[in-house]
Amino acid sequence: MELTSGASGRIIPYRRRKAENLSSSPLSSKSGSGFRRKGVFREQEDTLKRRYLAESLMVGGNGDGEGFFFEENASLFVNSRRNALFYRSWTPLPASELKGILILIHGLNEHSGRYGHFATQLTACNFGVYALDWIGHGGSDGLHGYVPSLDHVVADTSAFLEKVRLENPGIPCFLFGHSTGGAVVLKAASYPAIEAMLEGIVLTSPALRVNPAHPIVKALAPVFSLIHPTLQFKGANKRGIPVSRDPAALVAKYTDPLVYTGPIRVRTGHEILRICNYLQRNMAAITVPFLVLHGTADKVTDPLASQDLYKFASSKHKDIKLYEGFLHDLLFEPERDEIARDIMDWLEMRLESK
């Protein structure tokens, strides 16, 4: 299997790449202790395994068997820090009928491959979908579950949006973000240059306000994020909090090898608290059109913060949808098709208002 780098056009083979070749990479050859070199090798080896798994999720076909057709692809996007970020795309066929593109940014610890069903629903309505794996997630470079900076993820999202627009001139673009991905999308869209590229954004269960699982996390995170950023804080593991009322969806999520289920890493937790604080202070500066959706029983992110966003944002076009009793992973709730329909109706409305 070979992938094309979206940034440079280089062909990047990753399935056949041999593990022993990793030792010759610039990262592996840096001077340092043998322990550090082994750690780098393990991280790179893990990245290649995850990338192989991410590619294996591709359905390999060009339709859903129900009368409409789409093309599914995967590739790598090389960011400004020379990290290779895995992404996948779904394009309705024929491509000449493409009327809009949704760029999807997943939530913390998950990956783009979880949104294949939603993507095919969008292609049935002639929307194309691009879904990017963050650094340290899915098939992308980095230590699994570790995010050194959410500002980097914001920058990657912005650069990826620019790439998609260049490849699809004249096609209206939207950003979609779930949970912490929603916070990333909202911050990216708060910059005028990025907002100007968008018809709107969709946020599901955005991380605008979160409560650490243990009070000590908030106190210690700023210090330990500098001293030992990759440290896993076991007291902050929220895996026990239900995120869907569908038992099968929970099993699928927590048995997925591409979903990080370990304790949150200290820097990652600190970055989430930091972006939440930023967004809470700057809600009034938001002017991009948006739809925010939240379950009222969400125990991971605060639905009241989504209501604050709707209340205080300066956007002329803003909508909110609250689902009574629903949990965090809205697109994996039993009513997922209803929620997808609400999102697609909003996208259609935005296009009609142009």
TrEMBL record:
InterPro entries noted in UniProt: AB_hydrolase_1 (IPR000073), AB_hydrolase_fold (IPR029058), Hydrolase_4 (IPR022742), MAG_DAG_Lipase (IPR051044)
Every Serine aminopeptidase S33 domain range: 97-335
GO cellular component, one term: membrane
Pfam families: Hydrolase_4
Molecular function in Gene Ontology: lipase activity
Full protein name: Serine aminopeptidase S33 domain-containing protein
Organism this protein belongs to: Amborella trichopoda
